[in-house]
Amino acid sequence: MKVSLLFPPTWHPSQPYLSLPSLTGFLTQAGVKNVSQRDLGIELLDKVLTQSFAHGLYQQLVDKQQGLERERTGERGPGSAEQLARVIESLDRFPYLFERIELAKETLRGEGFYDIEAYRNSLFLIDKWLEVLSSLYFPTRMTVVDNQFGDYSIYSSKDLIKAIRDEGQNPYISLFREHVLPSLLTDRPDLVGVSITATSQIIPGLTLCRLIKEHAPELHVTVGGSIFTRLVDNLRRCPWLFDLVDDFVVFEGETALLELVNQMDGKRDFSKVPNLIYRQNGKITVNQPFYSENINQLTAPNYDGFPLDLYLSPEPVLPVQFSRGCYYKDCAFCAQSSHHQTGVPTYDLKSEDFMVDDATARRAAGEESNLHILAPFAGAVFTGGWGTRYAGLAGWLHGGAGPQKQRRNQQYSQRGKTHIPRTRLHTILLLLKTF
């Protein structure tokens, strides 16, 4: 059984997200030997931020300008005079950005990262370069950490159906076709898992699923992640999604994905797969009750195959999860409230021994530079005794009258008892560098 796990754009380019390494570690320990994982966000960003990509982009801009000069519709929107103005502006900026875009990328991967002005200027240049690319797909706007698809709403099924097929406004159709599909189809996995954890990934992720199914309908495509965990009831009412995807895994995915692999390799009885939502004989089925993992029985994340040198930071920064869920669980905007409403346990804390073992495993594998600790508490910070630097998320409640409780998160780094207010990764790494 060959499994390919994919993380679609867009996420923060400074470090890998934890979902795929967690799943890979769990599957590998359970004996699934052929598991690959790819962060398509950082792969595509690295490709786009090159002069070789720029040569083709320039010709596309010229062609787009000529096409809009011959024929355009109205003053605003796609194919309009407004888009023509954006394309002309992009061509004017092009020579300046062309000479600097690779330097901006390398600055963020080197010592220049710690120079605040160089850091800001590099991110600004990258953002302006993505704006140039976006002008081809106006009014879509790509940024380093987000995607805005013009008038399309990610909260509308009708818009999603259109957006994932819109060649004029969806840049990921051509990016996936050229830079992802050829290698994926050559690899020919039996199961493709797509992790969608942020709203910025919804349209790119579903676009990817559509393209995979159109080019290789026999491949089994599974989507997981917190986005669809919040939309369990909606999935029951959206049969069109199951034309793009074979099934969804909601809530925690380690045991569910392993059982899905086993069933695909065996009797294919998908009713045995926990947390799975699938369509069979025209009926959408939700496997309940939902299953919750014991965090102390999970393996350390496995980053094999992740191009750690492509991330836009001077040293690898690896997320390490010491707890799951939240002890507060009442914030309406957060997926943890969904866990609470369905009866899935909402807070699970890893033991101190497992915390140290987890981080030590990263050290032993050569992944030693920096750890980003994911834990909504301030107390479970350890000193491993071997000098690894780390930063984390600490959260606590600030009291108020009655229900007027406020929740605030702060980022901190610790050396002894030093606490650092919430900052960008840049500031965290700068401070860690002095330790």
In whole angstroms, the N-to-C terminal distance is: 45 Å
Instruction: Briefly note the structural class of the backbone.
Output: alpha/beta
Percent of residues in helices = 25-40%
In round numbers, the mean pLDDT is 84
Q: What percent of residues are in strands?
A: 15-25%
Secondary-structure element pattern, one letter each = EHEHHHHEEHHHEHEHHEHEEEEHEHEEEH
Write structural notes for this entry.
- It is a single chain.
- The chain is an alpha/beta fold.
- The protein has 2 domains: 1-296, no CATH class; 315-433.
- 40% of the residues lie in helices and 17% in strands.
- The protein has 15 helices and 15 strands.
- The chain has a 7-stranded mixed β-sheet, with helices on both faces. Strands 10-13-14-15 form a 4-stranded mixed β-sheet. Strands 3-4 form a two-stranded antiparallel sheet.
- Helix 1 crosses helix 12 (254-264), helix 3 runs antiparallel to helix 4 (81-108) and helix 7 (171-179) packs across helix 9.
Features:
about 425 residues, alpha/beta, 2 domains, four-stranded mixed beta sheet, 15 helices, about 40% helix
In short:
With 435 residues, the protein is an alpha/beta fold. Helix content is 40%, strand content 17%.
